[in-house]
Amino acid sequence: MADLWQNAMDHAVALARTAGAVVREALQDERKVMMKSSSVDLVTQTDQKVEQLIIQSVKDKFPTHRFIGEESVAAGEACVLTDSPTWIIDPIDGTTNFVHGYPFVAISIGFAVNKQLEFGVVYSCVEDKMFTARRGKGAFCNGRPLQVSDQKEISQSIVATEFGSIRDPETVDKVLSSMRKILCIPVHGIRGAGTAAVNMCHVACGCVDAYYEIGIHVWDVAAAAVIVSEAGGVLMDVTGGQLDLMSRRVLAASSRSIGERISREIEAFAPVRDDAPPPQ
Ligand SMILES: O=P(O)(O)O[C@H]1[C@H](O)[C@@H](O)[C@H](O)[C@H](O)[C@@H]1O
Ligand SMILES: [Mg+2]
Ligand SMILES: [Mg+2]
After folding, report:
1. Measured in angstroms, how far is the CA atom of residue 146 from the centroid of ligand 3?
2. Distance 4 CA to ligand 1 centre (A)
3. Ligand 1 atom closest to 108 (CA)
């Protein structure tokens, strides 16, 4: 059968490139920063503009498709994944980086049908790296095939993670305790690009061996999940169980053994799910 969703993927790549140019341009100007859930959960007019640009263009081309977009959900839209073709959009992954001019900023576009991810596009627009993957057809960066690392020794691994934006002291203690335990394995190092999507693409490239984070959202990881698995990596929950896209927890690794080893050091907690009904 012809690849049913190739048109949609081609459109996603073109849109990510256009959006990336908008983001790069905005990096030249002063950026007006607004807060969402807290003073460390930021949004700018560029996040909102880019999300609208992507959604409007997809609506024009694929009028029956549905959306989960970070800034639409922030504005009150439901975050529900149905069986319908659904675009899962993070207009700027790494908004804090964008605000500060820290050079890892990505446009992330995932696409799911029947709740299965079909393709992912992550454009790291300052680096001009276009990461793409279609289910069953491999993962690529600027057209070059990607392969996760073949590292089997946890003590020779680099692990990526983030401090996240949940900052109550009990949660921060758990985040730091997990990092402490991983550092003391010891691993070669811990890194973090400031964007979940780019961290996951680094797993796909093989320059880090695993990435985990608690507190991410479905739009942070949907696109990059396809890229990691098509590069030969594995995705799981931070406990080592099955990945649940709405659970706000992810662990991506070059192999199941590396992932499970790291999961044993993580102090798991459960943020409010992305698909939880809004508080009354
Ligand atoms: O809000 P944006 O889209 O920039 O995404 C998030 C990042 O992807 C996380 O890894 C990161 O830890 C932060 O939670 C950040 O909010
Ligand atoms: Mg994000
Ligand atoms: Mg974002």
Report:
1. 24
2. 31
3. 3
2 CA to centre of ligand 1 in angstroms: 36
- Structural class in CATH, domain 6-145: alpha beta
Q: Where are the domains of the chain?
A: 6-145, 154-263
3-class SS letters over 180-232:
HHHHCCCCCEEECCCCHHHHHHHHHHCCCCEEEEECCCHHHHHHHHHHHHHCC
Catalytic, 95? Answer yes
First to last CA, the chain: 47
* H/E run at residue 253: strand 249-253
How far apart (Å, rounded) are the C-alpha atoms in residues 70 and 54? 12
Write out residues with Cβ below 6 Å of ligand 1.
Answer: 70, 90, 92-95, 162, 164-165, 195-196, 213, 215-216, 220
pLDDT averaged per 10 residues in sequence order, the chain, 280 residues: 84 98 95 92 95 98 98 96 98 98 98 98 98 98 98 97 96 98 98 98 98 98 98 98 98 98 98 90
Q: Just give the CATH number of 154-263.
A: 3.40.190.80
Atom of ligand 1 nearest to the CA of 42: 1
Instruction: Read off the pTM.
Output: 0.97
